[in-house]
Design a protein that fits this description.
The complex is a heterodimer of chains A (233) and B (284).
Chain A lengths: L2 E10 L2 E11 L4 E5 L6 H9 L6 E6 L2 E2 L5 H6 L2 E4 L11 H10 L9 H7 L1 H4 L11 H13 L5 E5 L7 H18 L2 E5 L3 H7 L2 E6 L2 E7 H6 L2 H6 L2
Parallel strand pairs in A: 3-8, 3-9, 6-7, 7-8
Antiparallel strand pairs in A: 1-2, 1-4, 4-5, 9-10
Helix pairs in contact in A: 3-6, 7-8
Chain B lengths: L1 H31 L6 H17 L4 H22 L8 H23 L13 E3 L4 E3 H23 L1 H11 L1 H6 L4 H23 L9 H16 L6 H18 L4 H18 L9
Antiparallel strand pairs in B: 1-2
The chains are: A alpha/beta (233), B mainly alpha (284).
């Protein structure tokens, strides 16, 4: 599914965080969103997920205007969001967390449990365990797996490497690429971990004070002065 | 020995009856976070609707079910028209539900009058255990209370609806991002909570004289039950809180006057909350 953001201005109350932002994420593409802390990356994800309604501009999904749709309606149209800090339900078991992904929207969805456990075999051993007792990396796998249970067409990820061991970060990156390749899932990944984004995404954008200051293929961006100027790398 | 058995039976019955009365509040306060001061009005309305239906010739059980349904619909209307706009503002919902209580009490007075009404007990007699006699109706209500809590436990831990509700309590934002319609779930929970209060009012009505303030008897105690048991601890919390507030009062009354026993229990409740502000069964 193609996600198009046109001239979006958004923020919290009277504070504007994103200024006149436009971008397109093609069907099946992986877009990396880079930027330092407080530059509007998470606000962009919250806008796409429906947690913030933009003050101006439009967001369309395969041509349908979803700008003012609440989060659950967007989820039912195929957008799933893995929030920063993972947002697992700590007092539900791993199995119940996954089941929640399948049943939350109601209706009859195909059960993707076997596929999800295929992507994340580690979860298989922990199905009966309370999710809150797992390590950060396992919780991240669960959060992504739970998102997959919704059978998404678009996956929004907010800092999936946050607080996770480097070896697991690499593994999660590889799995996300596999999901993208096998299922043609469109992925938008917000990250401060630049190597992770470059290893996964075809395209990336750089945000600075809520404005888009660079965009292009990851190769182009990595070779330009953008990294030094805006990310101090 | 005879006294001990009698006290244990009384404490058990009172615990379960209080649990029944507090359950609707535990649902609404514990699951959607509304400090529902209208709980007493839901109980009163349930009692009056049961009285009206039985007076009109409807048998007791269908009358109670109709009353519960009626109160559930009133609860849904309250939620839809007013409460849903204020979910993130607990103090506002406290005032609004208090206003609902006042308005509903006046409406009840206008419609049903202020005279005491009596609902005939559908089950007369007592079970003779030799040393102690248990009124059949009270024993039945206690069993209904257990069945209600057991049924809720089943829904909570064995159904997809239960997963949705438990997820909703833990992280509303993420639940909505997975596709859960939060507004609809809140409406459902509020309606079920009101329905449970109406059911309790109807079932309690044969045990007391029905008057416009019958719900007040249970309102303060229900709050203590929920807070001492632990807000959100719907099943174990309600039972433990009910035992603490209702059952232990029976035990203390053995050694003192009823009023003194009540005072001791409420003092103990305050002490418990001082050291366990999240309740006896705090969230794991």
């Amino acid at each position: 599914m193609t996600l198009v953001v046109q001239n979006v201005t958004a923020g919290y109350g009277n504070i504007t965080v994103l200024h006149d932002l436009s971008l397109t994420v093609a069907d099946g593409a992986i877009l990396g969103v880079l930027g330092r802390n407080g530059m509007g990356k998470s606000t962009l994800i919250r806008c796409l997920a429906g947690l913030i309604i933009p003050q101006a501009g439009t967001i369309t999904l395969d041509g349908e205007d979803i700008t003012r749709l609440p989060p659950h309606q967007r989820a039912r149209r195929g957008i799933t969001t893995v929030v920063q800090g993972r947002g697992i339900f700590p007092r539900l078991t791993v199995m119940e967390n996954l089941e929640m992904g399948r049943v939350a929207a109601g209706g009859r969805k195909r059960n993707r449990l076997d596929e999800v456990l295929g992507y994340f075999p580690r979860l298989k051993e922990r199905l009966a365990q309370d999710a809150g007792t797992m390590s950060g990396g396992e919780q991240q796998m669960l959060a992504i797996g739970r998102g997959l249970m919704t059978d998404p067409k678009v996956m929004l990820l907010d800092e999936p490497s946050d607080g996770i061991m480097p070896t697991l970060v690499k593994q999660i990156g590889v799995t996300l690429c596999e999901i993208n390749r096998r299922e043609n899932t469109t992925i938008v990944i917000v990250e401060q971990n630049v190597p992770m984004v470059f290893s996964m995404a075809q395209y990336c954008i750089v945000l600075e004070k809520g404005r888009l200051v660079a965009e292009g293929t990851c190769d182009d961006v990595s070779r330009s002065d953008v990294l030094l100027e805006y990310l101090a790398i | 020995m005879e006294t001990a058995v009698s006290v244990v039976v009384d404490a058990t019955l009172i615990t379960l009856i209080l649990a029944l009365a507090a359950f609707g509040l535990a649902i609404i306060y514990g699951l959607v976070g509304v400090i529902n001061m209208g709980h007493g009005a839901f109980l009163t309305l349930g009692a009056y609707l049961t009285w009206a239906a039985t007076t009109a010739g409807v048998p007791f059980v269908p009358a109670v079910l109709l009353a519960a349904l009626g109160v559930g619909l009133v609860g849904l209307a309250l939620e839809h028209l007013i409460i849903r706009h204020f979910y993130d503002r607990p103090f506002d919902t406290l005032l609004l539900t208090w206003a609902f209580f006042l308005v509903m009490t006046e409406i009840i007075k206008i419609v049903f009058g202020t005279d005491f009404r009596n609902v005939a007990s559908p089950l007369a007699g007592a079970i003779d255990l030799g040393t102690v006699k248990i009124p059949i109706y009270r024993a039945t209500i206690a069993l209904v209370s257990l069945a209600l809590i057991g049924g809720t436990a089943f829904v909570f831990y064995r159904t997809t609806l239960g997963i949705k509700i438990r997820a909703l309590i833990q992280n509303r934002e993420v639940a909505s991002l997975l596709g859960l319609d939060i507004a609809l779930m809140y409406k459902l929970v509020f309606g079920v909570g009101a329905c449970a209060a109406g059911l309790a009012g109807g079932l309690i009505s044969p045990m007391l004289s029905v008057d416009p303030y019958i719900g007040n008897v249970f309102l303060v105690r229900s709050f203590f039950v929920v807070i001492v048991g632990g807000v959100g601890q719907l099943l174990g919390g309600t039972l433990i809180g009910s035992f603490f507030i209702g059952g232990s009062e029976t035990l203390f009354a053995l050694f003192s006057k009823q009023v003194f026993a009540q005072t001791v229990v409420f003092l103990l409740a305050i002490i418990v909350l001082r050291f366990r502000p999240a309740g006896l069964l705090r969230a794991r």
